[in-house]
Amino acid sequence: MIAPHRTERLRILVIAPSRHPIAEPHAGGLEAAVWDRVHALRTAGHRVTLVASHGSDFLDETPVELRLPSVAWTGPVTSDEAYPPGYVDEVAAVLARLVDRLERDPRAFDVIDNHSLHPLPVASSGSHGIPMLTTLHTPPLPELVDAAAQAGPAHAFLAVSSHTAGEWRALGVDATVQSNVVDPDAWPFGRGGADPIWFGRIVPEKGPHLAIEAARLLGRPLTLAGRVGDVDYFERSIAPHVGHGVRHIGALRRSRLARLVGGSGVALVTPRWEEPFGLVLAEALITGTPVASFARGGVVEVLDGLPGTRLVPPDDVDALAAAAQELLAIPRSERRRIREHALERFSATARRADLDAMLSRHASLAARSDAAAVAS
């Protein structure tokens, strides 16, 4: 393992999305990416304060009053698109308290690393002047687009893919591309297998029902691993197939999920929306498992030129099954090459120095700009 890169020790505030804890088993790729970010920054020696929901890891530096509320349902959970009554107001209240503290003590942090989907951190960035980087993990959200117009001069945007950057740029939000990364130690090389796997959030836009159709065409059993994010969709489109060549094993901690993915023959990726990045692509490839995917959104650039991958037209299940069949036929020895190329593109360990340098550079550039403004 590469030794942690040493650089100046920064005081970093990381703001997470609010809905799910930043803890295992990760609710989705966004939560996994933020967890890895905080872990990497702390490993590099930075002092990191995480604003995230109750139940998250890394909250040792976070005052209780600045911890975001957990989603608590009194009735059945319907989908990831819904919130319990009053929840959004509770989140806004915590973020308002955070902004108030930053305004009262703008020297508390050297830089803010923002991953929140709430507009308040972006819109208020000019009021405290602390250098802030906001990562755009999703297609454009109207509230965030409006907030970007109010962002302070020490604020910059990052996007997880060129595709996503282009979507935001079309609405006036300029962003630099910084793709997602994967911890290679958490996703070790796998032994491979004979059957396909699908993993991720079980929601309509991820399309696991199409993976079921493709596996049936392959004549092979399919494992689905992931949290049910839309109960109605699961009951309607997934549950009737469970036990009939399909098994659903729910959300798994990363170590178990990585062994499962690494022990599979091919990963099926079936986005039905303009996927910003698709972290499952990188995770599967780093274990050496080939990937067959619909060519949609940022997936095309993520997989561009990588061995052990096949892209097919969106929603074309026949083509997906044919691509998976090709990948299942490649020699096991090819898995090493798949991992090596994936490490070059996605390894968090290899790119840790870049992350340190980016945050340090943004903090120092903003500081110099602020000093110049005061001098004038």
Automatic annotation (TrEMBL):
SUPFAM superfamilies: UDP-Glycosyltransferase/glycogen phosphorylase. Keywords: Glycosyltransferase, Transferase. The keyword Glycosyltransferase applies. It comes from the Bacteria. Pfam families: Glyco_transf_4, Glycos_transf_1. Residues 28-185 form the Glycosyltransferase subfamily 4-like N-terminal domain. PANTHER family: BLL5217 PROTEIN, GLYCOSYLTRANSFERASE. This is Glycosyltransferase family 4 protein. It comes from Agrococcus versicolor. Residues 199-342 form the Glycosyl transferase family domain.
